[in-house]
Amino acid sequence: ETGVTQSPTHLIKTRGQQVTLRCSSQSGHNTVSWYQQALGQGPQFIFQYYREEENGRGNFPPRFSGLQFPNYSSELNVNALELDDSALYLCASSPLHPGPSVRDTQYFGPGTRLTVL
Amino acid sequence: KNQVEQSPQSLIILEGKNCTLQCNYTVSPFSNLRWYKQDTGRGPVSLTIMTFSENTKSNGRYTATLDADTKQSSLHITASQLSDSASYICVVEAYNQGGKLIFGQGTELSVKP
Hints:
The complex is a heterodimer. Chain A is an all-beta fold. Chain A is 0% helix and 49% strand. The N and C termini of chain B lie far apart (37 Å).
């Protein structure tokens, strides 16, 4: 088991609603990344936060937004939910060190299963 | 187009047998290539991580290889166990893109008694 926790475990929402998912990173890790994993697919990178700032973003619309707090925990917010947003949302923390030759390992949480009806 | 392709999509083997999973990628330049194991309903767990200058990396019964010239990697599992049943995902970290990881679709391995 990693030290990364996510809440809630499961969530059911309807189209058009908004959702907030939470992640607590492993102790000593200052970077959090969020991924969306559709059924039967590999995870897709949403964005990464480092020291409370967005530090890279994948191909997701602006209705996917995030926050990182001073204790390095993080939130993923999704507005105007669509049916295709149904997926497992994974959070991963890592001890990112700025610069080249990064060899950090991302530790994943168990994920939040979101179902949009 | 998917930048990380894995084969086979699924695989069934008998307990105790060996198997090899394949990964082809087009991500360039890249910082490192990783193999993860993901149990159903759980987050991925890192098995190996290799930079472009490394050819092989072992973690117990798991051995990963990397050929940066042909952009291919493999994961070899020796003496498989029932607990090896999981999805194995090849992941490439793009260079200098803020830690962005590009995942393959995974190979679903089932080990039967």
